[in-house]
Amino acid sequence: MKPIRPVGIVGYGGYVPAYRIKASEIGRMWGNEGCALPIVEKAVAGPDEDMTTIAYEAARYALVRARIDPHEIGAVFIGSESKPYAVKPSGTIVAEALGIGSQLLAADYEFACKAGTEAFQTCIGLVSSGMTKYAMAIGADTAQGRPADELEYTAASGGAAFIFGLKSEETVAYLEGSCSFTTDTADFWRRAGQPYPRHFGRFTGKPAYFRHVVTAARMLMEELGLGPEDFDWAVFHQPNAKFPVKAAKMLGIPKEKLEPGLLVPYIGNTYSGSSPLGLAATLDVAEPGDRILMVSYGSGAGSDAFSFVVQDAIEEKRPLAPPVRAFIARKKYVDYAFYARFRGKLLK
Amino acid sequence: MSVPRFWREIPHKYRLVGSRCRSCGAVYHPRRPVCPSCGSRELEDVRLSQKGRLLAFTVIRRAPSDMADFRPYIVGLVELEDGVRVLSQIVDCDPGELRPGMELEATLRRIRVHGSSGVIEYGYKFRPVIKWGPEAGEGKAE
Amino acid sequence: MKALAAITGAGCTKVGEHWERSLLDLAVEACLRALEEAGNPPVRALYVGNAASELVNEQGNLAALLADALALEGIKAAEVRAGDASGALALHQACLDVSLGQEGAVLVCGVEKMTDVMAPEVERVQMLFEDSRSTFHSGVTVPGLCALLTALYMERYKASYEDIVLFAVNDHRNAANNPCAQYPFPITVETVMGSPLVADPIRLFDTAGIGDGAAALVLTRPEEARKACDAPVAVVASEVATDRVNVCEREDLLCLRSLRLAAKRALKRAGLEINRVSFFEVHNTTSILGILALEALGLAEPGRGVELLREGEIAIGGRCPTNTMGGLKGRGHPWGATGIYQAVETVWQLRGEAGKNQVEGAEVGLAHNMCGLGSISCVHVFARWEVVS
Lengths: 348, 142, 389
Fold this sequence. Notes:
The structure holds 3 protein chains of 3 kinds. Helix content of chain A is about 30%, strand content about 25%. By secondary structure, chain A is an alpha/beta fold. Chain A has 2 domains: about 5-170 and about 315-340, Peroxisomal Thiolase, Chain A, domain 1 (3-Layer(aba) Sandwich), CATH 3.40.47.10; about 175-315, Peroxisomal Thiolase, Chain A, domain 1. In chain A, the strands form 3 sheets. Chain A has a 9-stranded mixed β-sheet, with helices on both faces. The longest helix of chain A is centred in the middle third of the chain and has 20 residues, at about 205-225. The N and C termini of chain A lie far apart (about 50 Å). By secondary structure, chain B is mainly beta. Chain B has one domain (about 5-130). Chain B has 2 helices and 8 strands, in the order ααββββββββ. Chain B has a 5-stranded antiparallel β-sheet. Chain C has a single domain (about 5-115, about 210-385), classed as 3-Layer(aba) Sandwich (Peroxisomal Thiolase, Chain A, domain 1), CATH 3.40.47. Chain C has 16 helices and 11 strands. Chain C has helices at about 25-35, 55, 60-70, 85-100, 120-125, 130-140, 140-155, 160-165, 165-175, 190-195, 225-230, 255-270, 285-295, 305-310, 325-330, 340-350, and strands spanning about 5-10, 45-50, 75-80, 105-115, 195-200, 200-205, 210-220, 235-240, 280, 365-370, 375-385. The N and C termini of chain C lie close together (about 5 Å). The chains are: A alpha/beta, B mainly beta, C alpha/beta. Chains in contact: A-B, B-C. The interface between B and C is medium-sized, with 35 and 35 residues.
């Protein structure tokens, strides 16, 4: 998919909460001591944080980098699996808090972990069509980890926001094209009203994550006439430290190109924030002219693949807000008791 | 749970909107209709600085009924860059890390949750400024 | 000194957890005691001071209700509210009424029943006596605000918390001899420091407790005083002053400006210098407020209030006896009743009925009652009838 008029990222921002719990601490709880752990530690939202406050933080930094009048943003879309309200969009709260004004579209998106990049696609369409000057897409989550489930090790909190506008000298990167591959594949789901999702173990691998990520990436490369060697960086959805590296290998992309965006070992899987935060972290180090492949994955299932090319404006705009690594470095450890309290797992 | 009141208070709570006196320039938070400095009735809404420094703090251990879930929590007296002083919770740090004079910045957090079916009140809280770059000692191993 | 009004009767209940007594029961008990002492005169007006009966006791309109319960038909009645200054503010209204010059007695009652709700709810209600836009947002409690002031005071004047809580120790020492006190036992600094933290650095034994109580006074015009009773006590000044509600906005957070103003006006009205005052009842919801009150009254320079405590000057035998029957910490602090308790205790002192807590030769007493952190202060000056012209 290529927009009629080229679209770029005019501002971006990421946010990770301060609290961390070590995977070994979770392992201690469930008697998995000494076994291989999927990550080192994950980010835990504080008791007064939720998807909306995380989205606000990411969006606020995106606005700082964008250097635009907030009133010119015509849409705020937040993708998440952990909306505080089933009915009431979080985008309205974030928009009010940022002083974005009322001439606005605001909806929350759901497509498991790729809800954020779904929002990317809509923003690209709105901006390219001229319906709005700027549009903001946010992927943010306070993922719900079922106690004792293997996904509890990795279900984490974080988010990133991207403000799209027509490609110009103000955009830090422009979109070459995107591609979406979607099927009805129930690898991981959460029924309405249920506090925790369910999944089908190893079925979440080959027929789910790998099929959609690799297919979307190949479809994109074919459409754009590009090969794996044309990309300087790659960002994949990161449910754990192994899957993105394996997907890269399947696509012929060396794992060094994943490095700046591979955050899961230290912050866990931030679900709808995962590949967006990876993109933000990559933009934190990329040089003008670099090409970035970004492929999200959402269970249910689907992948959005994007190719971004970094522009000169990145040099000036990047230092205006903290890089993702500053949030990663800012940490306070909690034990399982505080983790359970903060994440609302204690019965009231 | 007064939804209309929470809604009315959004500018004050989400964006730290206060009042500035058109006559003498004095700034206030929360908003005021009459300036106590010069008596003028011409005050306009103004968004206050989102950064400030800590003057004093306490740790609330005996919390009011509707904040019990959050205890213990830190409340600080913060002097914003525009000179206005506000009361605010201080988050993302332990009491032992706080020092008078410390730089703080505003963020948006949950203030109160009205049960499992009521609304969620959001509003500003302050946290230590996030530092990055050479001044934050970047490059040092954690 | 001229009397604005004469107090011809004073009565109160013990402050405590009165599970079997309702708000009205307590008010009636105090009022009947005061009326009996005054010789059961015909009452023409009733003023009721109360802070939070709608929120805590699910009962409003206390003025008409209490008048009805006392079978005072057709009288003038009004409720007076200003958080924990309600009592003294009701007394102020009563004095104003007396100054209208009409014959007959004016009854004033302060009553509060805080134990009908649990402590966390009490904490929440107290926050709305301040600007709730600020307190409800930050979650700062009244002890929390006091803690901020304590921290600022300790930082600015290099004072220690152990010295500051000598104020609470003084309250308890005096409460031990007051049969109406909620906590009639002495404590030490160690007791305070060993009690749990409420809002760092403020500890449990440094905060006024939760209790129920009612106190009442009967007032008449000065010319009717001797006719009504043998030992009337004069109200020689009754002044009220406000300050910025939001503590953050005050130029100096450690200055209780409302008290300074009200006291200045009251002493001017009474034609007195502060050194003529024999004893003081101040509003110490926590010790820091008591110390700031002493400083605002001019009994000590800013930052030196703690010295008065260390040197024992606020004890009964000291230079400025303070909270002679236990104060807010020892006698107790049922919000809307406190201002009248202070007045009743002042009456006992001036009549020479204070027992072991008697201030020798007490002739003039000053009572300070305020709302929260001083958004509104009431200062009353009382005198023995003999020294009034």
